[in-house]
Design goal:
It is a single chain. The chain is an alpha/beta fold. The chain has a single domain (16-128, 137-150), classed as P-loop containing nucleotide triphosphate hydrolases (Rossmann fold). The chain is built from 3 helices and 7 strands; from the N terminus they run E-H-E-H-E-E-H-E-E-E. The chain has helices spanning 21-34, 51-62, 105-109; strands at residues 16-20, 39-44, 76-79, 86-90, 114-118, 132-138, 145-150. The chain has a 7-stranded mixed beta sheet. Helix 1 crosses helix 2 (51-62). The longest helix has 14 residues, at 21-34.
């Protein structure tokens, strides 16, 4: 995969954004519009930090018109978009990287597509090096905001 331009709005401090949910959604849509496949984006953060919300927004900006839902139980959801397919993968229920074979991981990560991976740390060494990492965290003292670390 080729290198990708990092989308960091001017008000960001060193790649850290402190965002409300509305701002997180807008940022995700902007990233989706700017995404150039093939692109694998990893979404890391604790439960409830907004990984699926961000994935939904990226998909909306990328042109996915159908409802984007969490693939926690199915593990992989595939969506159609005008430019390419979109794979939304949730590895929360994966116990070891060896189980990735069962979901078609090797074929997905080399596809000319937009690939969004929640809980990427569970992929271990099978996660390609050339991906765009995004980390979400809770904002101490402000439950309405999240901290976003991109790139």
């Amino acid at each position: 995969m080729p290198a990708h331009r990092h989308i960091v709005p001017p008000r960001a401090e060193s790649g850290h954004l402190k965002l409300t949910e509305k701002e997180l959604r807008a940022w995700g849509e902007e990233l989706g519009r700017a995404a150039t496949p093939p692109l694998l984006i990893t979404l890391t953060g604790e439960l409830g930090t907004g990984k699926t919300t961000l994935a939904q927004s990226i998909c909306l900006g990328y042109g996915v018109s159908e409802e984007v839902t969490s693939p926690t139980y199915a593990l992989v959801h595939q969506y159609s978009a005008p430019r390419t397919a979109v794979f939304h993968i949730d590895l929360y229920r994966i116990e070891s990287p060896e189980q990735l074979t069962n979901i078609g991981w090797d074929e997905i990560v080399v596809a000319r597509a937009l690939i969004l991976v929640e809980w990427p740390e569970r992929a271990g060494s099978r996660l390609p090096d050339d991906h765009l990492p995004i980390d979400l965290d809770y904002m101490p003292g402000d439950p309405a905001r999240r901290i976003l670390l991109a790139g």
